[in-house]
Amino acid sequence: MGVLTALAILAGLIVVHEAGHFFAATLQGIRVSGFSIGFGPVLLERQRRGVQFALRAIPLGGFVSFPDDDEDSDIPKNDPNLLSNRPLHQRALVIAAGVLANLALAWLVLFAQGVVVGIPSGFSATPGVLITGVQADQAAAAAGLQLGDRVLAINGQPLGGGQSAVSALVDQIKTSPGLPLRLATERGGSTLQLQLTPADAGGVGRIGAQLQPNGTEVFRRPRGPLEPIRQANHDVAVLTGRTIEGFTALVTRFGETASQVSGPVKIVEMGASLAKQGGSSLFLFTALISINLAVLNALPLPLLDGGQFALLLLEGLRGKPLPEKFQLAFMQSGFVFLVGLSVVLIVKDTSQLPAVQQLLSR
Questions:
Q1: What residue numbers bound the domain in which 173 lies?
Q2: In whole angstroms, what is the distance from residue 25 CA to residue 67 CA?
Q3: What is the pLDDT of residue 31?
Q4: pLDDT tens figures, 92-114
Q5: Which is it for the CA torsion 165, 166, 167, 168, positive or negative?
Q6: Residues near 134 by beta carbon (within 8 Å), at least 6 away in sequence
Q7: Cα(197)–Cα(279) distance, integer angstroms
Q8: DSSP per position, 217-228
Q9: Burial, 35: exposed, middle or buried (Cβ in 10 Å; 0-12, 13-18, 19+)?
């Protein structure tokens, strides 16, 4: 059920993103020819008011199509309701609407969390730091750390609990590149002694693991109807800022951060784990993935919304559209890059699943 819940959330986020493009176009009277979830061959389809609504075989996103892109369309090229014949600001709104829809959904989810679950008011901490993810072939995996382990002490010093425990462990790791660290770790009710040697990444220790405080977040009832709104505003701003920082770090420190990039398999695995916990975890997961989709699509890369926005900006600066051959080459290169990256991430994440690792170790 956890996996199905995570898949349903991801599918819903894709539908919301594409619906942003779709409604931004149709509400302006712009012709739309298709609304697809997935890519490749059509599995299910339905025609309604001249629009093909389709579910496709490759579940790596979705798209809204326009008659402008169909060479066999019987609509005249000078039709004023074609997207390509609309003013720049109207086309810009259609392109940006997917990103805006995902940001709006994230806000609504966090607002709903404030109303249904409550306002975060601290953390009910228990001793230790929880291991929530371990990357294959990294220092943590080599030391024997596993998903669900609880690190209680480092070099004989108890870590305590809460965010301060995570900070203490992270600081010790960062300042100990190449140096062995002794960990006292709890697993299944038993205490294990492990030796962890952080990798040296430019003078900074890295272990290839995800850490979080051990315990549960505490919530309280909102103090008035405006507090969930203020909390949602704050949380969206914080999560968006951290997401942008993460993508910036990926560009500026690619060698250090590339191994931390996750694909759809890892996202579903994380979502399934959080779905089992229920409560606020699922709200936060939905909002965070929605914000990540928004920021990712805003990047100026071919085939993404940001790439199309960049082409539109160049058209505005030139005063005329870019050559069709250039636009086609730009989009085709983006398709090859994104599909290739998706395949690599799916293979990497699948190989790191506990069940797959057990099979490989036999």
A1: 122-220
A2: 12
A3: 94
A4: 999 999 999 999 999 999 999 99
A5: positive
A6: 140, 141, 145, 146, 147, 208, 209, 210, 352
A7: 36
A8: EEEE--SSTTHH
A9: buried
Alpha-carbon distance 115 to 103, whole Å? 19
Count of CB atoms situated within 10 Å of the CB of 286: 24
pLDDT confidence of residue 43: 93
DSSP 12-51: HHHHHHHHHHHHHHHTTT----EEEEEEEEEEEEEEETTE
d(CA 113, CA 129): 25
Yes or no: say if 28 and 94 are a contact pair by the CB < 8 Å rule.
yes
What is the total count of domains within the chain? 2
Report which residue type is found at 106: A
- Mention every residue, 6+ apart, whose C-beta is less than 8 A from residue 285: 6, 9, 270, 271, 274, 275
217 given a catalytic annotation: no
Q: How far apart are CA 111 and CA 119, in angstroms?
A: 10
Check whether residue 172 and residue 91 sit in a common domain: no
The single residue listed with the structure tokens 């739309």 is 32
Distances from the Cα of 180 to the Cαs of 128, 134, 147, 265, in angstroms?
Answer: 20, 18, 21, 32
Distances (CA, A) of 347 to 141, 251, 315, 318: 18, 22, 38, 42
The residue ranges of the chain whose pLDDT is under 70 are: 1-3, 123-125, 250-251, 253-280, 330-362
Last residue of one domain, picked from the residues 193, 220, 247: 220
Last residue of a domain, one of 220, 240, 257: 220
In the three-class reduction of DSSP (H, G, I as helix; E, B as strand; rest coil), residue 204 is classed as: strand
> Which of the residues 18, 71, 227, 256 is marked catalytic?
18
Residues 97, 14 share a domain: yes
